[in-house]
Design a protein that fits this description.
single chain; alpha/beta; 2 domains; two-stranded antiparallel ribbon; 16 helices; 7 strands; globular
Amino acid sequence: MQPTNLIRAGRLALFLTLIALISWEIFLRHKNITISYDDNEALFADKMAMIYGPSEQETVFIGSSRIKYDLDIPTWEALTGQKAIQLANVGSSPRPVLEALANDPQFKGNLIVDVTEPLFFSPGALYDGSTRKKIAYFKNRTPTQRFSFQVNHVLESQLVFLDQDNFSVTAMLENAQLLPPREGVFPGLYFPRQFGQVSFDRQTYMTPEFVIDTNLQVQVRKVWARGIARRGDPLPADKMNAIFNSVKRDVDKIKARGGRVVFVRTPSSGPFREAEAKGFPRNAFWDRLLTLTGCPGIHFTDYPATANFICPEWSHLKPTDAVLFTQSLVKILREEKGWTFPVKPEKS
C-alpha cells in the first residue's frame, strides 16, 4: 500500500472513530445520564493525599458504602467550613483504612468511622482486597500516574462515556445478566446504573430515577436479600476478640498523636435493619466497641432527627435525606461531642 493510501486510511479511521464516540456521547446524554467518576485506585489516592492538613480544616471519613451515600459533602463543608475527605469503600470494612491511618505517623486529624456491622466485624469483607490495593496504590504511585490522573480528570469531567464502571464493555456485559442463575453458584452483584453515581470527591448518590422507580429499588433489595440469606454463623469468640483488639490498637495510635475518632452508625431500614439488629446485638457490638476504644459514638436510633429514615433499598439514604442526616451529624458533633468548626452555627 502506498504511503498516500495509508494516510487516507488513517484519516478515515480517525474520522469514523470520532463519529462513533460523539454519537455514543450524544446518545448517553439524550438518556439524561450525567457525569460519574470511576471510583478507582487513582481517585482514592488523590483523596488520601489530602489527609495531612491541619485538623481544624478537614475531617476524614472511612467505612463502607453507607457513609459514601449518607454524607452529603457540600452540606458538611457549608456547615463546618471543613473539607470532608471521603476514604470509604463499597463492600469493604473500614478496618484496612483505619490500620493504614494508624500506621501513618503523619496522620493526627479528625476521623469519623462508619460502622456497618456485617462488614465492620467481618474477618474479610467482600471488597477488602480492593481496598488494600487502593492503599498500596497510594503509597507507591509514580509521578506518571499522578499526571495521568490529572489528564483523566479533565476528560472525565466532560465526557459521560468515560465512566468505566458503567460503560466499559466489561461493565455492560456484566450488567446485561446474560447467564441465568445456576444452583449452588452465588449470583453476581448486579446493581442498576441509577443506584450509584460518583462525584469527584467520592460521594455516591442515587439518581432521581432510582429514587422514584420501585422496580430499580427492588432489584437492589434482591441483592441484599441474597446476602442476608447467605449470612453464616457468628465468628468464634477468639476471632471476634481479635477484631475488637485490632480496632482498639489502631484507634489508640491515632489518639496518642492527638487525633480524634468518632464512630457513627448510619441508618438502615426494613429487613436489613432487622437482620443487623438480630445478628449484631447492640450491647455486644456497638456498646462494646465504644467502651473498649473509649471513643464517642453516634447511633442513628438515638436521635429523633435520624431514627426514622426509610432507605429506598433498605441500606442507603436518598440524596435529600443525606442532606438531613449530614445536618444532624454536624449538630450532634458540635453540641454533644464538643467538636468545633471554622463556621459557627446559625442562630435560630
